[in-house]
């Protein structure tokens, strides 16, 4: 189970890369993609949309079920991963790389701190 | 408390994700639904179908009685042959769909859906004449399905030279095996019934020979691509076999009366209000799911709702089945499917999807 140390994690299994506050990538964790099984479709948020921490902003679908993706922090959606329309399986194959889902401009740095560290997420999963 | 099939331990060892289906603990997937689906289309998959309900009917007049109970013509079945057929009520509503085989002159074998075994058994026992013996063989038999272009080749290996049945045929073996050349995937293959103490070994041998273990998830996507109906979704007591597009399995001219025949004669003569239509997304769309509304192109009228839905790995499109007003159910008709409040263009297409 991959849990990269440099990322932050939400209890709903989204990850966020805090290294760029202007365009922080967000995706779902390796644990999440394994639970979801084959991802076949994503409904992505609109670029420019203002979102709140914990708000359902996207939908990720496997053959058997549709699940909400919640924004880990408040901010503005600045980019979405258009490549997922052609290759939704990237979420399964490379959840922390090519499987990124959207990028968010973080408006409150404190919310980033409230997310779990890799160690805390590993504990959370066990 | 869900019942376990004789293959439960093997499913656990193979890392299957399990689900409760009709009161049975069943594998929904092992490696992945799309991978398993492709394996069946390209080579061979093996499924646990021990949840199904095998029954036997025997005795004087058994064949005639079955002909008065099912819609297809049993008089046409030679020994060693099988046919798809339906059981209807007095309103011609479908009680179940099933495969019926003739073992001998008055020995018949049929397989009921897991979700309908109790209802079907009560219906049948209530109508069974004194000379006919009806036996529920579910407790004593397990079953697997071996499906795909390589199924015959694998079966020749695994069965080590035993003669295999022709398409839709059945062979009984001395060791209790019942091998039917039928399936629910649209591919060539077999449904093998065997005593519960032996079925596990057959499952293991087919996997060793190269068949990929496949679960209920792939079973659903495979049958949907071929427009094979699923009882409880596409078939129910509120719709007739003619409305479901299964007219070729309804022999209204046969020399036996059966429940609902008068209703079906009227439908055949006067037409039907609704028909089960195959609907395919016109472009990229989210997976279609049961319950999603099917609307007119301008979105102002709801024609019906999907009773089955999914994705077709082969078409890379979303597909589904829905009862639509007959005049909207013609292939080529454009519709929209609503997914979470958004409309996606789709069209009625000829069956099967692939």
Q: Explain this structure to me?
A:
Chain A is of the alpha+beta class and 126 residues long. Chain A is 23% helix and 32% strand. Chain A has helices spanning 30-36, 83-86, 90-93, 109-114, 118-125; strands at residues 8-9, 14-16, 24-28, 39-43, 50-51, 56-62, 66-70, 75-80, 102-106. In chain A, β1 (8-9) and β2 (14-16) form a beta hairpin. Chain B is an alpha+beta fold. Chain B folds into 3 domains: 3-52 and 138-225, Probable tRNA modification gtpase trme, domain 1 (Gyrase A, domain 2), CATH 3.30.1360.120; 54-136, Alpha-Beta Plaits (2-Layer Sandwich); 274-349, Aminomethyltransferase beta-barrel domains (Elongation Factor Tu (Ef-tu), domain 3, Beta Barrel), CATH 2.40.30.110. Chain B has 8 helices and 20 strands. Chain B has helices at 8-13, 33-42, 62-67, 117-127, 151-158, 196-208, 216-225, 261-270, and strands spanning 3-4, 17-21, 24-29, 45-48, 53-58, 82-88, 94-104, 107-112, 133-136, 141-147, 170-172, 178-180, 189-195, 212-214, 274-281, 293-295, 302-312, 317-325, 334-339, 342-349. A 6-stranded mixed β-sheet of chain B has the order 11-12-13-10-4-14. In chain B, a hairpin with a 5-residue loop joins β6 and β7. In chain B, α2 packs across α7 (216-225). Chain B is globular, with a radius of gyration of 20 Å. Chains A and B meet through β4 and β6 of A and α2 of B.
């Amino acid at each position: 189970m991959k849990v990269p140390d440099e990322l932050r994690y939400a209890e709903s299994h989204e990850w966020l890369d805090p290294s760029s506050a202007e365009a922080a990538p967000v995706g779902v964790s390796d644990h999440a993609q394994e639970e979801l099984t084959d991802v076949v479709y994503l409904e992505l948020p609109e670029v420019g949309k203002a979102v709140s921490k914990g708000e359902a902003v996207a939908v990720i679908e496997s053959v058997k079920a549709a699940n909400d993706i919640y924004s880990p922090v408040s901010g503005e959606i600045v980019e979405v991963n258009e490549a997922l329309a052609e290759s939704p399986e990237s979420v399964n194959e490379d959840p922390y790389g090519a499987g990124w889902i959207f990028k968010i401009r973080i408006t409150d740095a404190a919310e980033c701190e409230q997310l779990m560290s890799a160690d805390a997420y590993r504990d959370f999963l066990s | 408390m869900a019942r376990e099939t004789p293959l439960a331990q093997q499913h656990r060892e193979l890392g299957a994700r399990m689900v409760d289906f009709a009161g049975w603990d069943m594998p929904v997937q092992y490696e992945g639904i799309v991978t398993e689906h492709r394996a069946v289309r390209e080579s061979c998959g093996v499924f646990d179908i021990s949840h199904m309900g095998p029954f036997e009917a025997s005795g004087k007049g058994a064949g005639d009685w079955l002909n008065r109970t099912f819609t297809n013509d049993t008089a046409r079945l030679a020994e060693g042959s099988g046919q798809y057929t339906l059981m209807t009520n007095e309103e011609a509503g479908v009680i179940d769909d099933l495969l019926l085989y003739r073992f001998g002159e008055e020995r018949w074998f049929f397989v009921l859906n897991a979700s309908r075994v109790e209802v079907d058994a009560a219906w049948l026992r209530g109508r069974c004449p004194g000379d006919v013996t009806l036996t529920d063989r579910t407790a004593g038999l397990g079953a697997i399905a071996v499906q795909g272009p390589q199924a015959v080749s694998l079966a020749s290996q695994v069965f080590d030279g035993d003669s295999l049945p022709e398409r839709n045929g059945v062979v009984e073996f001395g060791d209790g095996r019942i091998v039917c050349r039928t399936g629910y995937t649209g591919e060539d293959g077999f449904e093998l019934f065997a005593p519960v103490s032996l079925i596990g070994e057959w499952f293991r041998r087919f996997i060793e020979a190269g068949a990929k273990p496949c679960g209920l998830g792939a079973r659903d996507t495979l049958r949907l691509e071929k427009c094979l109906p699923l009882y409880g979704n596409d078939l129910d007591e509120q719709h007739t076999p003619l409305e479901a597009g299964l007219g070729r399995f309804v022999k209204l001219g046969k020399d036996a009366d059966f429940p609902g025949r008068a209703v079906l004669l009227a439908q055949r003569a006067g037409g039907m209000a609704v028909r089960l239509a195959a609907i395919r997304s016109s472009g990229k769309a989210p997976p279609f799911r049961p319950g999603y509304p099917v609307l007119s192109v301008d979105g102002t009228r709801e024609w019906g709702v999907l009773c089955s839905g999914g994705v077709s790995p082969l078409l890379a499109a979303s597909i589904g089945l829905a009862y639509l007003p007959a005049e909207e159910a013609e292939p080529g008709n454009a519709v929209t499917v609503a997914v979470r409040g958004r409309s996606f263009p789709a069209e009625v297409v000829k069956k099967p999807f692939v």
